[in-house]
Design a protein that fits this description.
It is built from seven helices and no strands. By secondary structure, it is mostly helical.
């Protein structure tokens, strides 16, 4: 194994993430909502940013047995999508928040590796928006 591969494996074992390209397990939308709310509260309390939230905080927010790495990874993708597609995501986050959490929890997604160049998101953003808009 080369150094990059060894580092990837160390980070994967340390944080519980899957290998790059592997599917991210689906999670409970309620856990996505709980992690999102922890993040939003952090933004309110620290508007200047530069705050790290420990994994134990996320673990306590989620239901027992939740795959916390998968939940946090999927929740992070909502924020990334909001940053790059604000005109689409802001109205959805305001009017269809529960559908956003469900789409983030269920959409096919893959893990990205640290330091690996990737073009595009680890899921189909058009499918994500379609899922949110079509949710009952």
């Amino acid at each position: 194994m080369d150094l990059d591969t060894v580092e990837q494996e160390r980070l994967r074992e340390l944080f519980g993430f899957g290998r790059p390209g592997e599917p991210v397990p689906q999670v409970d939308p309620g856990d996505v909502k709980a992690v999102w709310e922890v993040g939003q509260e952090s933004v309110k309390e620290h508007p200047q940013g530069s705050v790290a939230i420990g994994v134990e905080i996320f673990r306590r927010a989620c239901k027992p047995g939740a795959n916390v790495p998968a939940v946090t990874y999927r929740t992070q993708q909502i924020g990334i999508l909001q940053l790059i597609w604000r005109d689409v995501m802001d109205p959805l986050l305001q009017a269809r928040l529960d559908a956003v959490f469900r789409a983030a929890a269920e959409i096919p997604m893959e893990w990205i590796g640290v330091g690996i160049v990737r073009h595009g998101l680890p899921f189909d953003p058009d499918d994500f928006v379609r899922r949110v808009r079509e949710a009952a």
